[in-house]
Write a structure and sequence with these properties.
3 copies of one chain form a homotrimer. By secondary structure, chain A is of the alpha/beta class. Chain A is built from 10 helices and 12 strands. The first copy, chain A, has 2 domains: about 130 residues, Rossmann fold, CATH 3.40.50.10280; about 150 residues, 3-Layer(aba) Sandwich (Rossmann fold). The longest helix of chain A is centred in the C-terminal third of the chain and has 19 residues. Chains in contact: A-B, A-C, B-C.
Chain lengths: ~290, ~290, ~290
């Protein structure tokens, strides 16, 4: 009889996410161990406990999930976790702090339903934030020519360089989008716009995006009004508006949830997986292909 | 196949109650998520995680339990929890900080076995504490004429007014019971006495309660000697003493536990319940009627 | 139908041990309640919650595990836990802070496979530490004549007296082993050496132990190089080297894990067990006898 599936939830917040916990249970986890306020220093003891308890034949039935609101803290924690592994002594790990990977994957998959991303031009608004950076990475990985928008050119260019350094063949450019005029300039010729801004901040006006002639798909990931893309409804899901396809945050949410569950289930297929942006996107892609 | 039953235990103490956790498991909860040191500020993130993960058809399989030693903190937390809900987006909630609701319900149910509470006269000693206030509310809701005893008249009257404000048709009076003489005066003509004081404090002497001619039932909720009602044994359960029926804290405990378990099970019948004093009393009442 | 098996994990560290949690699940625990940063002051509330929820017939389905890196804190916590019990109102408890009991039991069992401990002469290096003390206790309990080695004679003698006070008929002597010469003097005539030192500290040279003519078994419990016994491999398991039988930390680990799992399972056989060094050794012994 195979051993129970154990997920070790390492969360950087005061309280480990209830959202992630419910999704874990609904993805087939039998025993969830919740850990809160986990820092990089705590990783070794916790991860060794996961690595050194079950034999090689059962090690894939134990996995680690890294979450919490602070994406940078989660990134550092994932690195600390994977640094504990050596050779075959390891367990699979998924990183989804603040839903960043599953959200970015769901957004790029939504875009890919309506236009071929290879060679397409895409603009990510708030492209230097955790979700924006991941959306940019995934778009670049699919062969899109990507502009990352930010309020300052310097931050945008640094973020673009980071993506180009980690995605082979990436074509990413930092652009400044601090006002309506700059945003319109950046958006004018693109096929895809993804707005990955913080709650309650409008990033582009309806007048601006409806005037972009090439635009095929526009996706907003902010669920709290005012939304990031004026005129896009939170529940929009492949809605045709002004000849463009629109998605709102909740409209993308169903895909995000499916990806999250499939990724958790995937963790238990082998003990050597690290599920970060690209891997989680690939899982989402295989779900689209199957349906 | 229906989803596992998840209970999110939100506890205001350093460590979430083991007592509440064991009862949850024994009431059919499949997955218990324990959260400690939960404050009003933490509620939104935790409750949103419970609300936004499962679809409407499965939302009744997730519920929230509020506990901890500090009843006032629990009351504030329940309010913060229910404030997160909107429309059908909600999960059921039970409040039982320090066992206050299940204990008060069990005490009033015990009294109701031996006398018709409608029109009866009842005295709650330590009536301004968390359990006493709830016992007073429940007695008033059953149509009893209630006296709430306290060491100061002002606190007693304020508490009585609070109950009259929230229970329609309630007849509640604050009385001062700071010494033997005052307590006897308050008790002299009542049918029911419930002593809801703190551990180790005697609230009424045996000479006093045995001299009350109308008294039919006297219930003590303090399990730690000296008990609240002199001469009543901690394990008394419908014991006939001096022509009165007596209950001690452990004697009421069996009913309390049955109510607690039934209330947890009830949480998972729909997603729109808020189980506080009156709802938990009604659950206890239906258990008595069934047996 | 019997109630689910609940293990209450009381851990003195910032985060309750993942290692102990996985082993609990793999030993048949159905519901694990994890508590971190547990102090002596917290014990009563937590333990009462375990004692007062299930009836006598089901009380053996709830148990307590005490763990954490700090063995002295764990010892104090076990004492606080057992002080909460009275009469038949109790639950079974296992203590294994830092793996001290299961490690010491596994080491002494390994020695017993190769020599009759009754009347044998044994040296425990780093014998005043938590694992060393337990190994000394168990060796003395099996009738061995024990030397406890320490860097100072005073600490060694105090530890020896503690064991003699708690193991009837024990013959334990404190010896100073602060350098190669003293260690060789202590080791020269013994049948068994167990090195129970801290990670990365060599306690005896290969030249020294290979020159001990009577030596039959030498066991090192330090897995982090440099190991405690020069020339013994971490994975050695009954390896014949220079005519002696050698065990390294990982070589003993399999037995340790089997003992740990059997001890957890044993907790649920009755509600009155306190599994500390001797009881855990006896469980290990019965496993050896069965196989």
């Amino acid at each position: 009889m195979s051993k129970p599936r154990i997920l070790v939830q390492l969360d950087t917040d005061k309280h480990a996410s209830v959202f992630d916990a419910v999704v874990a249970v609904d993805s087939g986890v039998h025993q969830l161990f919740q850990y809160s306020q986990v820092t990089v220093e705590d990783a070794e003891g916790l991860v060794h406990g996961a690595m050194f308890t079950r034999g090689p034949a059962d090690l894939h039935q134990t996995a680690v999930f890294v979450g919490g609101a602070d994406v940078a803290a989660g990134e550092a924690l994932v690195e600390a976790v994977t640094n504990c592994f050596f050779g075959p002594m390891r367990v699979s790990v998924m990183m989804d702090s603040n839903g960043s990977n599953t959200t970015a994957a769901a957004a790029v998959l939504a875009a890919a339903r309506h236009t071929d991303l290879k060679g397409a031009s895409a603009l990510v608004l708030a492209g230097t934030g955790p979700v924006g950076l991941r959306a940019g990475r995934l778009l670049a990985g699919q062969g899109a020519i990507v502009k990352l928008g930010s309020r300052t050119l310097e931050r945008a260019q640094q973020a673009a360089e980071r993506i180009e350094a980690c995605v082979s063949g990436a074509d990413v450019q930092g652009v400044v989008t601090s006002n309506e005029e700059e945003t319109l300039l950046a958006a004018r010729d693109v096929d895809v716009i993804i707005a990955a801004g913080a709650a309650g901040i409008q990033l582009i006006s309806e007048a601006a995006w409806t005037s972009c002639e090439n635009l095929k798909v526009i996706i907003d990931l902010n669920a709290v009004p005012p939304v990031g893309v004026e005129g896009v409804g939170v529940t929009d899901k492949a809605v045709d508006a002004h000849g463009k396809i629109t998605y709102g945050a909740i409209g993308v949410g169903g895909t995000k949830m499916k990806i999250h569950k499939a990724a958790i289930a995937r963790l238990f297929e082998s003990n050597d997986q690290v599920l970060d942006a690209e891997e989680i996107y690939a899982i989402g892609k295989s779900l689209e292909d199957d349906s």
